[in-house]
Amino acid sequence: MHEPILGTRHEHWPDEAACAARAHAMAHALQRDASLRDACIELDGPLGAGKTTFVRHLLRGLGIEGRIKSPSYAVLEPHEWRNEHGAAQSAWHFDFYRFGDPREWLDAGFRETFAGPGLKLVEWAQNAGPQRPQPDLLLAIEPGADDSRRVVHSALTPRGLALLEAGCRPLML
Ligand SMILES: Nc1ncnc2c1ncn2[C@@H]1O[C@H](COP(=O)(O)OP(=O)(O)O)[C@@H](O)[C@H]1O
Ligand SMILES: [Mg+2]
């Protein structure tokens, strides 16, 4: 993909708590700003980088309780969270690690899911092929020694830029 990058942000997560803090800042932005709630975020990085871990912290930050399954086998785990008015909001967690057949994209209705409402959180997006839509934000997680991670955020849309900046500025009250 060669879309222009509107902004980047480099972070160092010394441990999983830093990953959780970043995820919670994004969840807070999603709760505050309805225009961000249909965003698509791709998570890049090798096995064990922390993609699923980040998604779990984000979903917890949105108030989702109970066990949060990894979609490794199912490709898609749908979730529901409640906004401040108690209205149900969708969050779709994709993992295309085992995805091989582009026809499945159409058969499974993923095109509609990506075009529809709700937050899309996508692991191994490259396996979904070029038919996937452009994400708003890309998080590339590179594992370092022990629990440390280098993370590059790249915003490809204004919505992605707003998520990239989440938690980085004083809240406007
Ligand atoms: N800084 C960190 N950020 C994210 N996960 C971390 C971090 N440090 C350690 N971990 C651990 O690394 C593992 C990442 O696994 P997972 O999220 O399943 O990776 P992926 O989905 O990228 O394959 C988890 O066991 C998590 O607890
Ligand atoms: Mg994973």
From TrEMBL:
Magnesium recorded as keyword: yes
InterPro entries: P-loop_NTPase, T6A_TsaE
Gene Ontology MF term list: ATP binding; metal ion binding
Localisation: Cytoplasm
GO terms under cellular component: cytoplasm
Gene Ontology process terms (BP): tRNA threonylcarbamoyladenosine modification
Key word Membrane present: no
Alphabetically ordered keywords of this record: ATP-binding, Cytoplasm, Magnesium, Metal-binding, Nucleotide-binding, tRNA processing
Chief subcellular location: cytoplasm
Family: Belongs to the TsaE family.
Protein name: tRNA threonylcarbamoyladenosine biosynthesis protein TsaE
Origin species: Rivibacter subsaxonicus
UniProt lineage: Bacteria, Pseudomonadati, Pseudomonadota, Betaproteobacteria, Burkholderiales
